[in-house]
TrEMBL record, chain A:
It comes from Aquamicrobium defluvii. Residues 55-111 form the ChsH2 C-terminal OB-fold domain. InterPro entries: ChsH2_C, ChsH2_Znr, NA-bd_OB-fold, Thioester_dehydratase-like. Keywords: DNA-binding. It comes from the Bacteria. The keyword DNA-binding applies. This is DNA-binding protein. One of its GO terms (molecular function) is DNA binding.
From TrEMBL, chain B:
Residues 238-384 form the Thiolase C-terminal domain. This is Acetyl-CoA C-acetyltransferase. Its EC number is 2.3.1.9. Keywords: Acyltransferase, Transferase. It is an enzyme of class 2 (transferase). InterPro entries: Thiolase (IPR002155), Thiolase-like (IPR016039), Thiolase_C_2 (IPR055140). NCBIfam families: PRK08142.1 (NF006010). One of its GO terms (molecular function) is acetyl-CoA C-acetyltransferase activity. It holds the Pfam family Thiolase_C_1.
Length: 126, 386
């Protein structure tokens, strides 16, 4: 997408995130005050309330914290929480896997998908 | 024990309909309001406080104050989903104790069954969380299903144990002539129902029903003149749990915090409670709340609910003797209202004789609202006979 800000999901606080994911990079936020990472990204740190947050490129590696399979969708969507190596656990989808093979604890890596809303989004593959 | 709060639940009404083909939303609000006021022995002219949740973005409270012809001095429109009505009772008590009103009316009505309204609202993109969840197909059920999956992973909770929640409430619903689903079901029937979002089957999910309910909360001065049995609120608490910047833990709910406040204010513990109304949006919702309310250790909720643990007269704790949202009624996809109403019936001794807990003096109401796995509210209330 050439102009991310034209999408209703994108706002000035999160524009960098969307630009980066469009280039295959997953940005999360770090905090210079408490050194804890957070997601979804905010201008302030939800852990310590400091304003000294900065963008950090995540490795894109993590493991499945929990998941479910939406059996009445076609194709069946795997909705999951993935715990990133950097700490935060994020709401996402597992893509390209047979739902029967998905397990809590399984290692996963970033694989950017295009959402129904026309956004590049961080999904994960096993 | 602590003194009760200086306001009372004086009237309740659950609309008997489960499919309101020929009624408007306004009529449903009107009928539940009239029902609860009649139950209390009051009229519309007595009402000087009004609470309603629903869709705040459409200035919902103004529309229904107008439709009902009320002149409230106190209005409340906190919307936390299904738990909002427990919160409204708490807020009504605060307003009454502060002398701001004397008769507070709380109404809920909805037509998700005939109106075709989805449980999941249209995405509101400016909300900060929506862009990071909506594109992944966030829906009510998948946020609860992921809690169930993680609870099973950490504690070995089984689908059979979850099914027992539904089985228990179906045993209660057989005695409720208004219940949407009155047939007693078995664990096998729950497990054989279609998988909707692993590990939740269709029968792990509450019903979609039309209808509503209302509650009247009154001051001590008004209460003295009323004939119906009064129910006092000994304590209540509110809490919200969210993703905490990515520190997600799906194995417990905000009930852990709201219950602590309610128990402390009431001066009681879980050991004192023999009846509880617990919002059963899904079977897992009940199981996690049972643990967070202190009826079972964390991770042992499965064993607590199994083998009829929640059936009145069978288990140590009777839960949702009207059949709950899983079998009786789930108006507007919001369960807190009917939870309060059944607890009041129990404390008045007016539950069905087959499910009435004998000699009951204390009851607990707990509801969660929102999305259990992303962000939700919990509200806990300890009620007693006056």
């Amino acid at each position: 997408m050439s102009d991310y800000l034209s999408h209703p999901a994108v706002n000035p606080e999160t524009l960098e995130f969307w630009k980066a994911i469009g280039q295959g990079k997953l940005l999360i936020k770090g905090c210079r005050a408490c050194n804890e990472a957070h997601f979804y990204p905010r201008a302030h740190c939800p852990h310590c309330d400091a304003d000294e947050t900065h963008w950090v490129e995540a490795s894109g590696r993590g493991s499945i914290y929990s998941f479910t399979v939406m059996r009445r969708e076609n194709p069946q969507r795997v909705v999951a929480y993935v715990a990133l190596e950097e700490g935060p656990t994020i709401f996402t989808n597992i893509v390209g896997a047979d739902p029967a093979d998905v397990r809590i604890g399984a290692p996963v890596h970033l694989q950017v998908s295009q959402s129904q809303e026309g956004l590049p989004v961080p999904t994960f593959a096993m | 024990m602590a003194a009760h709060r200086r306001a009372f639940i004086a009237g309740v009404f659950e609309h008997p309909t489960r499919k309101a083909v020929n009624k408007s939303l306004g009529q449903l609000h009107r009928e539940v309001a009239a029902g609860a006021l009649a139950d209390a022995g009051l009229t519309r002219a007595d009402v000087d406080g009004y609470f309603v949740a629903g869709d705040n973005t459409n200035l919902y409270p103004l529309s229904f104050i107008d439709y009902l012809g009320l002149r409230p001095k106190v209005i409340g429109a906190t919307d936390t989903g299904g738990s909002a009505y427990v919160t409204h009772v708490g807020q009504a008590i605060e307003a009454i104790e502060a002398g701001k009103c004397e008769v507070a009316l709380i109404t809920l009505a909805g037509k998700p069954r005939t109106g075709g309204a989805a449980a999941d609202p249209v995405p509101d993109w400016p909300l900060p969380d929506v862009p990071f969840e909506q594109p992944f197909g966030r829906a009510v059920i998948n946020t609860y299903a992921m809690c169930a999956a993680r609870h099973a992973y950490e504690y070995g909770t089984t689908s059979e144990q979850l099914a027992w929640v539904k089985v228990a409430f179906s045993h209660h619903a057989q005695h409720n002539p208004n219940a949407m689903l009155r047939n007693v079901v078995t664990v096998d029937e729950v497990l054989e129902s279609p998988m909707i979002a692993d590990p939740l089957h269709r029968l792990d999910c509450c019903v979609v029903s039309d209808g509503g309910g209302a509650i009247v909360v009154v001051s001590e001065a008004v209460a003295k003149a009323l004939a119906r049995p009064l129910v006092a609120v000994r304590g209540y608490g509110d809490a919200v749990k969210h993703q905490a910047g990515g520190k997600v833990d799906l194995t417990y709910t905000a009930t852990r915090w709201s219950a602590a406040v309610a128990y402390e204010e009431a001066g009681v513990t879980a050991a004192d409670i023999r009846y509880a109304s617990v919002y059963d949006s899904f079977t897992i919702t009940v199981l996690e709340q049972i643990e967070d309310l202190g009826f079972a250790e964390k991770g042992k909720g499965g064993a607590f609910v199994a083998d009829g643990g929640l059936i009145s007269g069978v288990g140590r704790l009777a839960v949702n003797t009207d059949g709950g949202g899983l079998c009786n009624n789930h108006p507007a996809n919001r369960g807190g209202m009917t939870k309060i109403i059944e607890a009041v019936r129990q404390l008045r001794g007016e539950a069905h004789p087959a499910v009435q807990v004998p000699g009951l003096e204390l009851a607990l109401v707990n509801a969660t609202g929102g999305w259990l796995g992303t962000r939700h509210a919990a509200a806990t209330m300890i009620l007693e006979t006056k």
